[in-house]
Give the backbone structure.
Amino acid sequence: MGLDAPFITENQIEIEEKKGKKIYYISKIPIAVESPEFYPTVELLDAIKPGFRNITIDDGAVPRILGGAKLFAQGIVEMDPGIKANDTVFIRGIDGRYVAIGTALFDADAIMKTRKGPAAEILLRGGQETGLI
């Protein structure tokens, strides 16, 4: 996915298989999920702060996302203009903390132009037991 985490070495990683997916840990902190595709966790995103595919949402959208909602365009404050439909996206609050990982439903320019309707399906939420939805 183009994410760089130079502080992680292979011998630090522990792998657990749970309900048909692999969960990767460092010091009991989940860093990635494979089910069948590979996704970073919000914990890893908070540690590495990726500079691409980010969507920043307002404070009102954060509890909705964490509570199970899709990401709607109305809650987006800013997004990487390079995001294309079907890209994996990293969703963060205004404070910079990541809250979810999702899949963009449309290109960034279309989302920001219309500012209405669903913008991303959520794959993994912060605080979730590393389960993909």
Summary: The beta strands are 13-18, 21-26, 29-34, 38-40, 54-57, 71-72, 76-79, 88-93, 98-104, 118-125. The two ends are 20 Å apart (CA to CA).
